[in-house]
Design goal:
220 residues, alpha/beta, Rossmann fold, seven-stranded mixed β-sheet, 37% helix, 22% strand
């Protein structure tokens, strides 16, 4: 199932380029241009209806997700979580700015605080999950036990900050030291992670210096 870089570029041309996706530059955020285009294009291709974002930060990824959902012209549910009050306020402000500039007439979304205290607000079945917490080990374990099981078979998952490559049959973490990423690596190497890789920007040298290590997976 894993896509090549050329196949991903075909999706980008079909959706991000044809739809004239604009990268939000009026505020700082964690989603780079490459990841933005790939995320948008895969959401347009897979057309998820029930979507969760776990760690909205300033709202850059939320904007990309919502733009794709609106363009899909299908009923959708977007639920975002950001435990830091100032970042959650920024997410709301930046989504509101997008609406008031006439880019979209209306969108439907929910935005909440600490996801670990609001699990009851997460749908039992998800078509898409964007996972980008602070990557402490305890939150990675919580996501593994509580969020990934709710993604439907065939559902799309984005794991952010995945600066990991396979070398000589082992997964090597090259771009940081988050304990939560190490926990996920361990689950993959034990064969306990129910995800199949679709595409990881970190596998491609020309992307590694200009991307924040987005990776995309399919639920087995």
């Amino acid at each position: 199932m894993e896509y090549t870089k050329d196949q991903i570029q075909e999706f980008v041309n079909k959706y991000a380029v044809n739809d004239n996706l604009t990268f939000p530059t009026h505020f700082g955020h964690r989603l780079d241009v490459i990841s933005s285009k790939i995320l948008y294009s895969l959401l347009r291709e897979f057309k998820p209806k029930t979507c969760l974002e776990f760690g909205t930060s300033w709202g850059g990824s939320a904007l990309v997700i919502l733009k794709a959902l609106v363009c899909n012209e299908l009923p959708y549910k977007y639920i975002g979580f950001e435990k830091e009050d100032n970042l959650r306020i920024d997410t709301l402000r930046n989504i509101t700015h997008w609406l008031t500039t006439g880019v979209a007439n209306s969108i439907h979304f929910e935005l909440w605080g600490d996801i670990t205290r609001n699990l009851h607000k997460v749908p039992q079945k998800l078509d898409f999950a964007f996972i980008d917490p602070d990557w402490e080990e305890d939150i990675a374990i919580w996501a593994y036990e509580n969020i990934i099981p709710r993604v439907k078979k065939g559902g799309l998952v984005q794991i952010h900050d995945w600066s990991v490559r396979e070398k000589e049959g082992r997964l090597v973490y090259e771009g940081g030291g988050y304990k939560g990423i190490f926990y996920f690596i361990d689950r993959f190497e034990r064969g306990e992670m129910p995800l199949e890789k679709l595409f990881s920007v970190w596998d491609w040298e020309e992307y590694r210096n200009s991307s924040i290590a987005s990776s995309f997976w399919i639920k087995k």
